[in-house]
Structure formats: structure tokens, C-alpha cells
Amino acid sequence: MSLKKIMVFLIALVMLNTTAVLLHAAEDRVGFIDAPRVLSSHPKYAESQKYMEEFVRKKTEESMAAAEKETDQRKRQEIIDTARMESGNEESRVMTPITKDINKVIESVAKAKGVTVVLNKMLIYFGGVDLTEDVIKGLKELKF
Predict the structure, then answer these.
(1) Tens digits of per-residue pLDDT, 69-78?
(2) Which of 132, 101, 144 shows the shortest CA–CA distance to 31?
């Protein structure tokens, strides 16, 4: 299957899924958040981004230095791919506690506001309850 067909299939799947969620949401009270704003408001987000920038910079330098010493093109690519995978794994490790915090606060705010479905603001064309400020406030109240 070509990449174009896969992309069309995935887009259709996402649209179908979004439609199903929105149809179900007609029975529910829908809320939304500005996800990038919420994420950047987490007290540990800026620190985690600085850490990841440094981690990726070091991994890139190390992998490029190791790849330059290697004459086999396949091994060079393996070195670079391994560094990318390690960077992705580290980002996942660093971001998991942050996303868990955010999800807990979203759930808490949604329950308090009587909202049963929370979507990303990018999926909302009209209506819904904006929970962004309440979620940001909840994140600032977390104890670390």
C-alpha cells in the first residue's frame, strides 16, 4: 500500500472517529481545552523542555561523532536511528508524569463543571465549555 493511500486512510479514520465522538457528545456536555496552552502552563514543562533540548543536543553530538568514525553506511544509519530512538524514549519518560498531571486536573475540572466530554480546542468549531483557565489554575495548585 502506498504512503498516499495510508495517509488518506488515516485521515478518513480520524475524521470518522471525530464525527462519532461529536455525535455521541450531542447527548453529553462538551468541554474543551487549549492543549498547547495547558501543556506549557504545567509548572515542570519549561524545565523538562530545557532538559530535553540538552539531552537531544548531546545525543546528536555523540551519534554524529560515532557515525563519522564508521565507514559502513548501514552502521552509520543504525547509530543515528538508535540516538533518535533513545531521545524519543527519554522524552516519553520525561513527559509521562506531566501528561498524567494534566489528565488528572482535566478530569477533576470536568467533573466539577458537569462536563462529560473534553476535546482539544482545535476540534471545536462552535459551542462547548472552555475549561482551559480552570485547568491551568488547577495545575498551578499542584504540589511537587
Answers:
(1) 888 889 989 9
(2) 132
